[in-house]
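Colleagues,

For the teaching module next term, I've prepared a clean inverse folding example: a structure given as tokens, and then the sequence designed for it. I'd like students to try predicting residues themselves before seeing the answer, so please don't circulate the second half yet.
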């Protein structure tokens, strides 16, 4: 049952809009509280009257209702929803969501929303395959929106191929599943570290690495969507977690990350350390910018080891805590990952293999193996949002008996 779940359906202009009344009906049968927003062009495909009758609420299209003089705040509606489902999601709406354009009511609500957003593309085969559409979809997915991939089949254009909106029964199942996993970690405290660290050489230079932070941010998003209370200790990153409920602790150096992680770990039930922490830092940071010296062609930096956060938490760990580390290897991946599992007293290691296409710091995809005890599970190359779900599912499967 979806009793009391607040689900906002955003309908955009596409022939698949005729299937949305069925989706609304399925959700209402499960006692969900459903509201519908239609973009102006959606009304050419299905009537607001049909959707308001089925949902039991007036369909919204604008913030200001000219007939009643009422103002519907997009911010309030965005905060009200537990889940937003944009279906069908036209190429136009996907492009605008990807760019943060807010020129209709649905788009303003999506921009103001703090809850997870699912979107079900529906368009012609060539529009779907177009590089612009594919890039926009990837942008949304990389921000944590959940793609309901279109199926292959007959399209309104008469062509046959990918672009047909997933059937309402299937969308309904995905919505229901998203709520049932939504409670898995209720009452559990999760610590995630993500991003690089910067170790200052002088006021303008530092030693860093190419980590974007995306993998750990995706993991934090999945945990929070599954009910956990998440603290994200995040090194310098341009990516925002987009989930208001994640407590973000911004840090810069390995020392700051160590200090924050050791404090939050004391309270944590689960910790996932995905950060790319510097192993060494300059022994001293110059107070002023280091100048070139006349006649000197080299410079030697003296580095000292940083504290190993994973190893420290592994030593602090109690029986009720579950500790996950990452391993980034360019050779002998499995062997080295197994060694890290032992030497750092972790419960699980997520191994990334760097030297494969589509894997690593600067891509939105990743390929992992998950190692716990004697078990190794190899996963396919996937978007990092899906890899994050695999990591969280693996944690859940290993500790579900004691949750
Ligand atoms: N890690 C950490 N603190 C450090 C270095 C690494 O907590 N100072 C953590 C990472 O967040 C990751 C795991 O240790 O979860 C493994 O990181 P990785 O860079 O693969 O290995 P290292 O332990 O640094 O060993 P090496 O560089 O020799 O492979």
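(Answer key — instructors only)
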């Amino acid at each position: 049952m979806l009793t009391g779940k607040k689900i906002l359906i955003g309908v955009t202009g596409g022939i698949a809009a005729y299937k949305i009344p069925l989706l609304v009906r399925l959700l209402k049968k499960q006692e969900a509280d459903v509201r519908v927003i239609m973009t102006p062009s959606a009304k050419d495909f299905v009537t607001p009257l049909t959707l308001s009758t089925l949902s039991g609420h007036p369909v919204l299209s604008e913030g200001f209702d000219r007939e009643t003089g009422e103002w519907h705040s997009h911010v309030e509606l965005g905060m009200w929803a537990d889940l937003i489902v944009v279906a069908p999601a036209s190429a136009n709406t996907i492009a605008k969501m990807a760019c943060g354009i807010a020129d209709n009511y649905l788009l303003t609500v999506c921009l103001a929303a703090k809850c997870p957003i699912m979107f079900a593309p529906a368009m012609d085969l060539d529009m779907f395959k177009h590089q612009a559409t594919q890039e926009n979809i990837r942008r949304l997915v990389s921000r944590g929106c959940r793609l309901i991939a279109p199926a292959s089949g007959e399209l309104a254009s008469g062509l046959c191929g990918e672009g047909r909106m997933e059937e309402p029964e299937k969308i309904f199942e995905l919505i229901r599943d998203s709520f049932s996993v939504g409670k898995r970690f209720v009452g559990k405290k999760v610590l995630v570290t993500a991003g690089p660290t910067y170790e200052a050489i002088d006021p303008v230079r530092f030693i860093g690495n190419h980590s974007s932070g995306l993998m750990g941010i995706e993991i934090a998003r999945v945990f929070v969507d599954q009910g956990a209370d998440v603290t994200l200790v995040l090194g310098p990153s341009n990516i925002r977690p987009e989930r208001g409920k994640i407590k973000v602790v911004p840090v810069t150096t390995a020392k700051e990350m160590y200090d924050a992680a050791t404090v939050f770990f004391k309270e944590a039930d689960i910790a996932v350390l995905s950060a790319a922490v510097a192993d060494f830092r300059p022994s001293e940071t110059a107070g002023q910018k280091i100048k070139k010296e006349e006649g000197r062609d080299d410079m030697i930096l003296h580095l000292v080891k940083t504290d190993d956060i994973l190893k420290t938490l592994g030593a602090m760990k109690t029986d009720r805590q579950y500790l996950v580390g990452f391993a980034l290897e360019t050779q002998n991946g499995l062997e080295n990952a197994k060694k890290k599992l032992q030497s750092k007293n972790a419960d699980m290691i997520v191994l990334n293999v760097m030297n494969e296409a589509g894997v690593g710091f600067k891509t939105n995809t990743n390929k992992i193996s998950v190692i716990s005890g004697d078990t190794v599970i190899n996963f396919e190359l996937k978007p990092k949002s899906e890899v994050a779900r695999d990591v969280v599912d693996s944690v859940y499967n290993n500790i579900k008996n004691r949750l």
